[in-house]
Amino acid sequence: MAHIPVLLKPTIEYLNLQAGEVFVDGTINAGGHTIALCPLLGSTGLVVGIDADSEAVKKAEHNLQTCPCPVKVVKNNFRYFDQILDQLKVKKIDAVLLDLGFSSDQLESSGRGFSFLRDEPLSMTLANDDTLGQLVTAKDAVNSWSETSLADIIYGFGEEHFSRRIAKAIVDYRTAKEIITTGQLVTIIEGAVPIWYRRRKIHPATKTFQALRIAVNDELGALQAVLPQIWGHLNSGGRLAVISFHSLEARLVKDWLKTKVVAGEGKLLTKKAIKPDRTEELANPRSRSAQLRVIKKL
Ligand SMILES: C[S@@+](CC[C@H](N)C(=O)[O-])C[C@H]1O[C@@H](n2cnc3c(N)ncnc32)[C@H](O)[C@@H]1O
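Structure for Ribosomal RNA small subunit methyltransferase H, as requested:
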């Protein structure tokens, strides 16, 4: 399924890009948001795009050829924000967008085992190759992490009520056979939870898959690392927009933005997080959990 940019209209409105500004899309993917944003920068602006996935980088470079200003797309983890800008010799920036997580195409058809609906190798890595030095895959995690670590991660990052049962089932299973596919993991999870839990609308593997993905990619660590680096590069008057998709991300962003407001360094432009309206939710069910928060540096 092609990725549809979420909360596009409010993102354009709150970022309020002006001709000649420097805009960083920290999660550019195929450039869905940036295609709509870059005309506002005119020919004197600059777009810097970042993505850890080289397929995404290729797509963005192709799709953004029509932007009126120069576009530089870098394959890297946004947690190295300072280093990325240094290498491009970009010092000050005016606006940043982080649209967190993964695109619909990555989740559904990257073959990396993000979806419990497909039987694929259990990888779940952010980068589609190992050039960023990512050493841990979901396969490594389920086959080598202790039962306690697995339970803690499934509970902490998935908010999964049956984390202990699932972790025990994973460890029991792997004593006989290595877990290498999403299909095996789904079967293990289904066997570990009560029947009523299997019959609910939400798939019983949803939370465990989310937890493993967050853990393997250190998604919260990367987010925690990037926010102060972005802040350090933003001009006063600069805007930072973050779109989050689960409660852990949302909490981290909300709390960090609050520290900037309390310190008198920033002004929240979104008093309450912006959520998709009914029309967007129906057109793009993936947008349902999205929340947009925007701060302006004072
Ligand atoms: C939801 S998609 C962005 C979609 C894009 N805004 C659009 O509408 O086309 C998130 C993208 O961020 C990338 N990503 C997630 N975490 C990252 C990180 N820590 N460093 C670099 N890229 C990351 C993913 O590979 C993915 O391509």
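The longest strand covers residues 234-244.
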